[in-house]
Design brief:
Blueprint: H1 2-32, E1 34-38, E2 52-57, E3 89-93, E4 100-107, E5 112-116, E6 119-122, E7 125-126, E8 129-138, E9 161-170, E10 176-181, E11 194-195, E12 200-204, E13 226-227, E14 231-241, E15 260-261
């Protein structure tokens, strides 16, 4: 009887050890290599859709205190730092509210950035764009938050086709990506000239009229200029994508987005 009790206690101890080691290994993996990220909003359509699940490459830019869960890493500034490239899709920590955002890197330190009539200007030069058709999606609640998409052809009834004009934008250096347009009347289409300070970056969403980004100051819900230490990692590839309210609803997974590269 005593032997059975001892075996039972040993089994419990071994189980606890296994769980603890699994947590340690998972924590190290998440801190040093890849962090899972679930796309909650439509600010990066059509590059990223609500329900896309991806791993963020945390080795891309080195490590800061934001590389650890709860910002617990005791790193001063960044270690093993590498400079991000214009056009990277980056996950970063919001400078004020502490949430993780994902946007495209548009402005590097020293750049000037401006929007004029919906056109992006970098260092005083218009960035080349060309028409790329129309992005279409069903007007319905999307993701766990039940967000309804904004439509250029609105108002659209539930179940209807929601459309946005799509263009192909080519940044200095030759990297290209799609951007969407919803309207031409918002503040985000006509801005002041922003000069990116040293040690900071300027980010924008690809869904240009539906993104709170560096065009908006932190006082009004935007992100402003993002310090280099707030960069967490680069989004390289979508693992899978769920069109339903949960990533566990495998029957709602989008078949065309498995292991899709993030451009």
């Amino acid at each position: 009887m005593a032997g059975s009790k001892a075996k039972s206690e040993n089994g419990i101890v071994e189980t606890i050890k296994t769980v603890l080691w699994a947590l340690v290994i998972a924590g190290v993996f998440r801190t040093l290599f890849f962090q899972p990220f679930w796309i909650p909003s439509g600010s990066m359509k059509d590059t990223l859709l609500i329900g896309d699940f991806l791993f963020v490459n945390k080795m891309a830019y080195g490590y800061s205190r934001y590389s650890c869960p709860f910002s617990a890493c005791p790193f001063p500034g960044r270690i093993l730092a590498s400079e991000p490239e214009r056009g990277d899709v980056v996950v970063f920590r919001h400078p004020v509210n502490g949430t993780d955002f994902i946007k495209r890197l548009i402005g590097l330190p020293g750049d000037t950035v401006q929007m004029r009539e919906g056109r992006l200007y970098l260092n005083g030069e218009a960035v080349p764009v060309e028409p790329a058709g129309v992005f279409e999606e069903i007007y319905e609640k999307q993701g766990p938050m039940g967000n309804l998409p904004r439509c250029e052809n609105g108002p659209v009834g539930e179940g209807g086709i929601c459309q946005k004009s799509r263009s192909r934008e080519t940044l200095p250096g030759g990297r290209s990506h799609d951007v969407l347009n919803i309207d031409d009347n918002g503040f985000a289409d006509n801005t002041d000239v922003f000069t990116v300070p040293a040690g900071h970056y300027f980010f924008m969403g690809d869904n240009r009229d539906n993104s709170q980004d560096s065009r908006f100051g932190q006082a009004v819900g935007g992100v402003g200029f993002v310090p280099a230490e707030n960069l967490i990692g680069r989004a390289d590839r979508i693992i899978f994508s769920s069109a339903g309210r949960s990533m566990l609803f495998f029957w709602t997974w989008r078949a065309d987005r498995f292991f899709k590269a993030v451009e």
